[in-house]
C-alpha cells in the first residue's frame, strides 16, 4: 500500500525502569494509521519487523522478562485490522478475526445493529479504540447493549478504550453482559447512561465468570439491582475503577448475590443510590462512601472535577477525573502502569484510587460538596465549597451563586443568591468554607440545581453545579 511499518520501543507506558515493544503503521506520507504497544514489566525492545503473506507482521527483538540472562530473543506475530478501513462495522471485524488478532476502531460514534450487542464468539483477540474512550463511542441508541460475552471467553479476550452508552435491555446487562463462564478483560472503558430492567445497569457478570475490569468508569447507569455492576455467582476482579452516580432499588454501585465475591481494589464507589455495595465483596485501598471494612479504605469525598447534574431538563454527564486536593491521590500501590487517559502510574510516590491518575493542569479548581441531596421545606441546604489555587502567585477572585428552580427558571431573576464575595488565595493553597441556605416553606417541590461560580463578577472563570431535591 506504499506505507511503512516501524518496530521499536517506548518507555511511555512502562515507567522509568522498563520499556515496551512499539509497532507503528503509517501511510505513504508517514502519517500514523495505527500503533500497537505490548510487553511485560521489564525491558522489551523491538529490533526488526517483516510483513508476511497473510498481512500479519513478525517482530524480532529482545526481552528482559524471562530467563536468567539480561536479555533473551523475543519473536512475535501480530495481525491488525481497522474499522472502518478494513471492515465497515465492528461486528464484521470481530467475525473476520482469528485468535491473537488486534482490531483497532477509529475515532467516531458507532451506531446501528452491527455496532452493538458485540459478540467475540469465543475468540481470544483484542478490540481497542484508536485514541481513548472519549473519542470512540458505542451508542446503543436505547435498544440493546454494547457487548455480549457468552461463549467462555478468557482474559485474552480484551476490550480496550471505548465509551458504551445509551444501552437499554429488558433483562440483565444494560452496557455489557458477561455470562456462561466467560472472563474477558475490560479496560479503559467508560460505561455510562445505560439501563437494565433487572440486573446490572452498567454491567452484568454472571455464573462462573471472573472478568477483569481495569481503569473503568461506570457512572449514571440504572437497574433494578446493581446500578453499576451486578454479580451473579461470579468472582470479578475490579481494579482502579470509578463507580459513581448509578442507581437501583438494591445495590446502587455494585450488587452481588450470596455465591459471588467481587475483589475490588484501588477504586472509588461514591454517590450511588441507595448504597455503594450490597452483598459479598472484598474491598481494599478504596474510597467507599459510608465506609466499608478493608485495609486502606477511606470514606471521604473524592472531589471529582464535576459530578453529573440537571441543566433544566437536560442531564449533564459528570467528569470523574480527580482535582488537586482529592484524598484519593497518592493513596495506594498498584501494578497497573497507566490510567484511563494513558498517563503513567504513579504520578507521585504512590498511585491514585479510581480510574484517573491526577495530572492536574488547571490553575484554579472549584468543587462543591453538598451535605445531602435531599432537603425538606423549611430545612437547610448545606455544602462545603473548596477553591484551589495551583499557581505560584496570589489569586484574587469573586465567588457567587444562583439556583435553577424546578420550572427551569433561575433564582434570583437578577443578581445572585450569594455574593459576589471577594477572596484571596495564597500560592498553591486551598480555601474551604461551609455555607448554609435556609429552604423557604413555600419552596416548590422538585429538582433544583445549585450553580456556583468564581471569576471577576460577572465574568466566569470556573463553575460547579450539583442537583438536589426539595421534598
From TrEMBL:
InterPro entries: PbH1, Pectin_lyas_fold, Pectin_lyase_fold/virulence. SUPFAM superfamilies: Pectin lyase-like. It comes from the Bacteria. PANTHER family: ENDOGLUCANASE (PTHR42754), LIPOPROTEIN (PTHR42754:SF1). This is Right handed beta helix domain-containing protein. It comes from Candidatus Abyssobacteria bacterium SURF_17. The lineage of its organism: Bacteria, Pseudomonadati, Candidatus Hydrogenedentota, Candidatus Abyssobacteria.
